[in-house]
């Protein structure tokens, strides 16, 4: 349970603001996250971890010399937007390039990827290092999630940048560390969002959820809760079975509490973990026990092992000084205040619009307000659907997105924008403020639809706009029908619209969304919990169908 908050929807922003005020001597808040207050004396690679909030001290708690240069911070368990990532990167960049590093989640991959493209277009070198340490989430490394192994990979990269390695070398050692990092975790109870009356998931009495995620996802399967000794044996056995080929016998080890398992309990578990690793012939190098990558108040633990060579050991043991993690001889004096350079901002103009298109823009705005009402009413239901095999944030994310979209459309209308620019502005704000997979997809889709509508016409070719919307979402997300995503409702909707009315297409989308309950997910966060999701429709497909129906009802009302 989260006990202290104001507006629960603003919890992540409020927490970041409080953190930056408390540590104002070493960090400063910028749009989208935080960066070191002191800029480096010479150009150095900016190492920028990022992801959703709710994981403190990851990610902004590790900003400081020897570790991160900044952190991109999204809403709770929701990837930050590409705009947020660019903002933090521009504030942290000192002339040697930037590297984003984050866990392997679809929303993070898309948003940081888009940010990388935008930075490169501005002449800034930018790269990505994706963490894939969770052995429970998939068989192949490339498909695995990033969980507490983030911490080790980020630390190695931060030390490499502090040594003066160039961008290519920092990326190389980060990927090298990821390749030899393995994590297994378990949950005893789910976490609860601020303002929520119940946790995202529950674990039966006497059971634990083996293979948890750090975004509030339940374990892959429930098993009887063992003693600490038996749990340590299970964890160590699973990780040793994943030892990389050719790895040595020196290891960095993290025993991580997810939020409600406290230090004394971790110490009990550590006794057996450490003994078993030593008995297996391994030497433990500066192990860490505590809360390193949390999941709000989740009751859970994870064990991470990184096999070290001489280079990785040097970087792992190098000094660091951050608000949440300190090692070696770096002191607060080394972080003295430097020049505060604000991230550059860009102002978007609108094409000159015809009077007919400006009137149509007002209609577009009215339609978005109708969608806003429908999504607010469905927020809890969408969250419950998502919590079955995901992190339960879909309803909140959609509400944040549509609220931002309406605000963006209002600004555009006030500036005299035409219908196309109005819808494109709504999409840009949706992507910027909602974050996550749905945020980037809906934002990009609405912009594509707006570009088709343009600034001159007083009417909308619905099929052309929907086609542009769908094409952009499918190309960006890479999903296909059958993957159990919003595409499973979007494609039938578009096909029916080509031959029928909007109302009939919306009904088709609703039917298709319901049928996703029979599918096994092949994309997104629900994929590791594929079997658990069977019997529950995809939340993205459900929300798309809901929006299609709301727009149809609005259109009929306008014509009446």
Topology:
Elements: H1 11-22, E1 27-30, E2 33-36, E3 46-53, E4 70-76, H2 82-92, E5 98-103, H3 106-121, E6 126-131, H4 149-163, H5 167-179, E7 181-189, E8 207-210, E9 221-224, H6 228-240, E10 250-257, H7 263-279, E11 283-284, E12 288-290, E13 299-307, H8 310-317, E14 320-321, E15 326-327, H9 355-387, H10 394-414, H11 419-434, H12 436-453, H13 462-477, H14 487-499, H15 502-515, H16 530-533, H17 539-559
Parallel strand pairs: 3-4, 3-5, 5-6, 10-11, 10-12
Antiparallel strand pairs: 1-2, 2-4, 7-8, 7-13, 8-9, 10-13, 14-15
Helix pairs in contact: 2-3, 3-12, 4-5, 6-7, 9-10, 9-11, 9-17, 10-11, 10-12, 11-12, 12-13, 13-14, 14-15, 14-17, 15-17
Which keywords apply here?
2 domains; Serine Threonine Protein Phosphatase 5, Tetratricopeptide repeat; 560 residues; alpha/beta; 7-stranded mixed β-sheet; Rossmann fold
Report on this model:
- Keywords: ATP-binding, Kinase, Nucleotide-binding, Transferase.
- GO terms for molecular function: kinase activity.
- This is Dihydroxyacetone kinase family protein.
- InterPro entries: DhaK_dom, DhaL_dom, DhaL_dom_sf, Dihydroxyacetone_Kinase.
- It holds the Pfam family Dak2.
- This protein is of the alpha/beta class and about 550 residues long.
- It folds into two domains: about 300 residues, Dihydroxyacetone kinase, domain 1 (Rossmann fold), CATH 3.40.50.10440; about 200 residues, DhaL domain (Serine Threonine Protein Phosphatase 5, Tetratricopeptide repeat, Alpha Horseshoe), CATH 1.25.40.340.
- The chain contains 17 helices and 15 strands.
- Strands 7, 8, 9, 10, 11, 12 and 13 form a seven-stranded mixed beta sheet that branches. The chain has a six-stranded mixed beta sheet with strand order 1-2-4-3-5-6, sandwiched between helices.
- A hairpin with a 4-residue loop joins strand 14 and strand 15.
- Helix 10 packs parallel to helix 12, helix 12 packs antiparallel against helix 13 and helix 13 runs antiparallel to helix 14.
- It is globular.
- About 5% of the residues have low confidence.
């Amino acid at each position: 349970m989260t006990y202290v908050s104001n507006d629960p929807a603003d919890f992540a922003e409020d927490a970041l603001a409080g953190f930056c005020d408390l540590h104002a001597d070493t960090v400063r808040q910028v749009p989208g996250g935080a960066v070191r207050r002191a800029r480096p004396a010479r150009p150095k690679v900016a190492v920028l971890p990022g992801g959703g909030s709710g994981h403190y001290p990851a990610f902004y708690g590790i900003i400081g010399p020897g570790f991160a240069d900044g952190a991109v911070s999204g809403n709770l368990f929701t990837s930050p937007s590409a705009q947020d990532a660019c903002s933090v990167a521009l504030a942290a960049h000192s002339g040697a390039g930037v590297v984003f590093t984050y866990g392997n989640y679809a929303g993070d991959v898309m948003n940081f990827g888009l940010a990388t493209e935008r930075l490169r277009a501005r002449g800034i070198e930018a790269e990505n290092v994706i963490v894939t340490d969770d052995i429970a989430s998939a068989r192949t490394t490339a498909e695995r999630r990033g969980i507490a192994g983030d911490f080790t990979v980020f630390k190695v990269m931060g030390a490499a940048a502090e040594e003066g390695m160039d961008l290519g070398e920092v990326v190389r050692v980060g990927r090298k560390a990821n390749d030899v990092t393995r994590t297994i975790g378990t949950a005893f109870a789910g976490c609860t969002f601020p303002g929520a009356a119940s946790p995202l998931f529950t674990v039966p009495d006497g059971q634990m959820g083996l293979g948890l995620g750090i975004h509030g996802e339940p374990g892959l399967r429930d098993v009887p809760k063992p003693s600490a000794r038996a749990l340590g044996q299970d964890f160590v056995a699973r990780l040793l079975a994943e030892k990389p080929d050719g790895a040595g016998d020196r290891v960095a080890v993290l025993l991580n509490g997810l939020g409600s398992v406290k230090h004394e309990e971790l110490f009990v578990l550590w006794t057996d973990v450490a003994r078993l690793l030593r008995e297996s012939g391994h030497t433990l190098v500066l192990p860490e026990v505590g809360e390193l990558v949390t999941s709000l108040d989740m009751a859970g633990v994870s064990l991470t092992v990184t096999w070290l060579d001489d280079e990785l050991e040097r970087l792992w043991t190098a000094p660091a000084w951050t608000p949440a993690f300190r090692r070696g001889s770096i002191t607060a004096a080394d972080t003295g205040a430097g020049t505060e350079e604000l991230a550059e901002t860009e102002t978007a103009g609108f094409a000159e619009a015809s009077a007919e298109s400006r009137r149509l823009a007002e209609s577009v705005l009215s339609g978005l307000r109708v969608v806003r009402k429908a999504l607010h009413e469905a927020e809890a239901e969408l969250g419950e659907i998502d919590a079955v095999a995901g992190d339960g944030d879909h309803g909140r994310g959609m509400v944040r997105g549509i609220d931002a979209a309406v605000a963006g459309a209002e600004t555009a209308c006030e500036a005299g924008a035409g219908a196309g620019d109005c819808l494109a502005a709504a999409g840009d704000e949706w992507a910027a403020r909602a974050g996550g997979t749905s945020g980037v997809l809906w934002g990009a889709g609405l912009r594509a639809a707006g570009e088709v509508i343009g600034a001159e016409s007083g009417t909308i070719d619905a099929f052309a706009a929907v086609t542009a919307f769908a094409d952009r979402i499918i190309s960006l997300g890479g999903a296909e029908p059958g993957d159990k995503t919003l595409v499973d409702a979007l494609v039938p909707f578009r096909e029916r619209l080509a031959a029928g009315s909007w109302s009939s297409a919306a009904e088709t989308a609703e039917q298709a969304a319901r049928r996703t309950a029979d599918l096994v997910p092949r994309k997104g966060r629900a994929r590791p919990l594929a079997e658990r999701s069977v019997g529950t429709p995809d939340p993205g497909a459900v929300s798309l169908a809901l929006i299609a129906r709301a727009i149809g009802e609005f259109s009929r009302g306008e014509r009446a």
